[in-house]
């Protein structure tokens, strides 16, 4: 039997986690969006004084912190998508297609300016 | 043949997208963390003046905006995990286990205070 | 003698603080912008599970935390403005004038939609 | 007659602006904290792909954008402090004193690690 897709698996686990704790009452989309932004900032905090954040600038302790924060961001993201009825994989594939059209490789190669600056 | 896991699929797609545009030079972990925080804020913006953000408060236009922003957050998250060598699924499962131990259902049921406030 | 303006006073104090610690090398505008976003998230964290955050929802401990985070945000904001050569008071007055023109009171009264949704 | 202090002046102006538009109903501390985080992200966006954000990396258009975003951040900060009953100047001076004690110049000179890493 093939393994369940990661995003589906995490949706199931976060639902069970919230239900068991009766925390669904706090998990409005608005509150989850705030919680997501707080977790992202905890991730950003690890990088703020580093030159680039490349692997050789990160000691073991920092790598563990980053791993945990990346996980927290994903877990809140999965819950927010669940509450707003969004299929994350489908949405990401749709957005990749839009990005490919918006930033044609031949036109933007090596240039980081935003689309609206062209 | 079973479908590739979503997170692996998106990692492959984002790698190809960046390579084709020669954008890897801009994608330091630090810059990706900043970009992630910007996308999360664009998501937060949709909810900031709503009472809760529940589905019945969202019109079609807002739902589309939210779907695109959720996708952007996931895409930057996948790229940041890739650059820092983190397996997102494994990290999320590890964090869920830590959260279960940190917030025992019997103890925190219906209470949203942070762990460190207990 | 009249008291120095708050924003000028804080600019002087933050400059001295950074110089005494030889921290100016870390205080690029980019890093200060990241630090500012991290402090704002620490502020957001106090409000994320509250209904509205009105004063009667805040105990003494939370009020102290909020006061400290508001201060941190202001201190990084003052430093970032200093490094980018922006007069914060003049910029705020200029922006207020733009906002008055963009959101005429008669037209937007009681309506929180963003300008671009009109 | 001496000029009014900037922070007091901006508090008065933002109060009048909100009252004239009947927007106070939307300006809960929670919503203002979200709005503040969104404005900070718009500021961060200007710096995310730059090497350091120093003045010579900023063209006139970017400097104007940064000036407006710095202003927006200050204006929401003033409003949030107002709603939570915080005197921003006093809070910032209190926090500076705490920071001086927490990071003694002799001990931290030239080192950007966070206090809790010592």
From TrEMBL, chains A, B, C, D:
Could you identify this protein by its name? NTP pyrophosphatase (Non-canonical NTP hydrolase)
GO cellular component term of the entry, any: cytosol
Q: Does the keyword Hydrolase apply?
A: yes
The Swiss-Prot or TrEMBL record annotates one GO molecular function as: dCTP diphosphatase activity
Q: Which CDD domains match?
A: NTP-PPase_RS21-C6_like
Q: Which SUPFAM superfamilies match?
A: all-alpha NTP pyrophosphatases
Which GO BP terms, alphabetically?
Answer: dCTP catabolic process; DNA protection
Matching entries from InterPro entries are given as: dCTP_Pyrophosphatase, DCTPP
Q: Which organism is it from?
A: Pseudoduganella violacea
Q: What is the lineage of its organism?
A: Bacteria, Pseudomonadati, Pseudomonadota, Betaproteobacteria, Burkholderiales
The reply on keyword Hydrolase is yes
A Pfam family recorded for this sequence: MazG-like
Signal peptide location: none
- Keyword tags: Hydrolase
């Amino acid at each position: 039997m093939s393994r369940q897709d990661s995003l589906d698996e995490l949706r199931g686990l976060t639902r069970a986690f919230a239900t068991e704790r009766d925390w669904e009452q706090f998990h409005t989309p608005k509150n989850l969006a705030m919680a997501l932004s707080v977790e992202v900032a905890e991730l950003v905090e690890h990088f703020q004084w580093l030159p680039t954040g490349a692997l050789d600038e990160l000691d073991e302790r920092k790598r563990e912190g980053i791993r945990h924060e990346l996980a927290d961001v994903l877990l809140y993201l999965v819950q927010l998508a669940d509450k707003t009825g969004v299929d994350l994989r489908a949405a990401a594939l749709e957005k990749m297609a839009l990005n490919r059209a918006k930033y044609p490789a031949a036109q933007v190669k090596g240039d980081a300016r935003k689309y609206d600056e062209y």
